[in-house]
């Protein structure tokens, strides 16, 4: 009986070791998911093909890792559940690293910082929001942050503000403005941009790079970024690639490739190409 128990124990340990080795073996082919609706980070072009900063970056990283990559589009709110369900292997969709997300998935080293702002109508009542041109670090002293935000709370009191569902922008409104604004959640940024244009909401909150892309369109020439830029706090630790917690080898490969792409200037060049700004 003792021999049988030892044999079973050995088999179990062997299976665990084999499973761990399999989970951490170097992949030769992966699928990367993006939203495909967040210009200039990732979007679907007129030809139906995915394009943008993260598409170019994903292809560059895959070349550095010497693995084959397939890039697919997935609705934003289904990205993390589908990653966990193993429908794909990596998320590259301008996803911010937050403590809540770190509870369910892992992230690579960040490849871009985060900065958010409001977009409003140029000739509207919010065109001169307090703090325009300044930056508020939400990770700073709580009393100071509240003091800096109070003029904005006063200006936005009773206004309808749009944000994309399941983003740090929604968390920002919920944390600092839920008692003074009417928050509206949208499936995509395009939807809240169109509602702003139609006058159904008074402002939107989104990443500045996304807003800049919107403002470059002729249809949005009458709109502008107003108020301060927001960083830190609910806006997390930067933008990174999401992976499953047990894919440690893939995470290590991504980290190494991202560090190399930063070091040789590739990420900055791609940012200049797609966002007209550097990320260094």
Automatic annotation (TrEMBL):
It is found in: Periplasm. Residues 29-278 form the Solute-binding protein family 3/N-terminal domain. Pfam families: SBP_bac_3 (PF00497). Residues 1-23 form the signal peptide. Residues 29-277 form the Ionotropic glutamate receptor C-terminal domain. One of its GO terms (cellular component) is periplasmic space. One of its GO terms (molecular function) is ligand-gated monoatomic ion channel activity. The keyword Nucleotide-binding does not apply. It comes from the Bacteria. Keywords: Signal. SUPFAM superfamilies: Periplasmic binding protein-like II. Its main location: periplasm. This is Transporter substrate-binding domain-containing protein. It comes from Rhizobium fredii (Sinorhizobium fredii).
